[in-house]
Amino acid sequence: MVRTILQKLNRTSPDPILRSNNLRGSMRSRLGLVLVTCLCCFYLTGCSILMQLLSNPSDKPIAATIEETGNYSAMNTELATQALTEANNIATKATKAIPVKELTEAKFDYATIPAFAGEASVVVNNNVPFFTDAERLAWVPGTEVYPDLDALDRCGTVYACVGPESMPGAGMERGAIGMVKPSGWQTVKYSELIEDLYLYNRCHLIGWQLGGENANESNLITGTRYLNMSGMLPYENQVGDYVKQTGNHVLYRVTPYFVGDELVARGVLIEAEAVEDATMRFCVWCYNVQPGIEINYATGDSNIVERTIAPDAEIVQLVLNKNTKRAHLPDCPSVNDMKEKNKEFFEGTVEELKDRGYKACGRCNPY
Ligand SMILES: [Zn+2]
Of 3, 89, 268, 275, which has the highest C-beta tally within 10 A? Predict the structure, then answer.
């Protein structure tokens, strides 16, 4: 069941500490009043589709609900046509090879995600989000949807139409989130491998800078430090900067992907698409991994990866730093810090590397 913006704006936390921390409370109540008035007007003038979406009593997808109502007003039809035309334009510009029909019908398939190979994120579906035209229509500025946790207390897909309305106001500071224990949560330190010591962060699905949500349990997952900082943050910054520079809006959807009954997500799919212009759009997968550490996604348990030492003649796939003459495993944290111009992907024998004057990195011990 989705928590709509009205519920979101009017809800209070059962925890008095949380409630007192909710700096946006009064602002939201006023905004809520305005929205209620607007929604009533919409409803009375026959634009009932938005109401049905916001009070969607079932777990049916939004697209299906729209189709079933068959109740487009002239305004909605016009908007739909406009959205479709824009979507066509965007799709044509970015990926000429893929017909638009296939794009709109495409669905995310975890099986298409390659195994982690040293990059914190990979592009999915040629960087085209999986939004349907109906979804594009349903998101009005300020919409934020955080579904309830599932039976295993796991987060679902969160949505926001990110814009000046959804972002925290100037001078606002992040509230405490330490009381939330996302599914699979464990407090565990790896001082020798992770800069900030702790393997897991409470990862905001919709970053605080975009949605302003603090201790919202539907927006926090157990994510590695690496997922948070190297995977998700650069994309959040991209969206945040775009909104700050233009005052425009971005359809933004984050899906944590859990395999079976696992409690820790394998990663998150982030989809973003500018509403007012076609200057920003992406669809990416961020891996919930931590280089050098093995995670049991079913429970959240973890351990340091045991490296087997390859004999000199064995073929290895490593990343070389041409500047420091060090060889690294692709998932070594140092690879992330390496300048692109110094990076070289190497496939060959350790012997060959030694001949070229390369030494094994002391951090990841590749051979
Ligand atoms: Zn290394």
Answer: 268
Tell how far the Cα of 326 is from the centroid of ligand 1, in angstroms: 8
pTM of the model: 0.61
pLDDT at 250: 96
| pLDDT in the model for residue 232 | 97
Alpha helices in the chain (DSSP H): 5-10, 16-21, 25-44, 48-54, 62-69, 74-94, 100-105, 133-138, 208-211, 225-226, 233-246, 333-337, 350-355
Residue with tokens 């076609």: 278
Q: Please, which residues have CB less than 5 A from ligand 1, an ion? A: 328, 332, 334, 361, 363-364
What domains are there in the chain, each with its CATH number?
A: 5-295 (3.40.570.10), 315-360 (no CATH)
Give every residue of the chain whose pLDDT is below 70, as ranges: 1-105, 307-313
Tell me the pLDDT tens digit for each residue of 204-262.
999 999 999 999 999 999 999 999 999 999 999 999 999 999 999 999 999 999 999 99
CA-to-CA separations, 121 to 59, 178, 224, 232, in angstroms, rounded: 30, 26, 13, 8
CA of 299 relative to ligand 1 center, distance in Å: 28
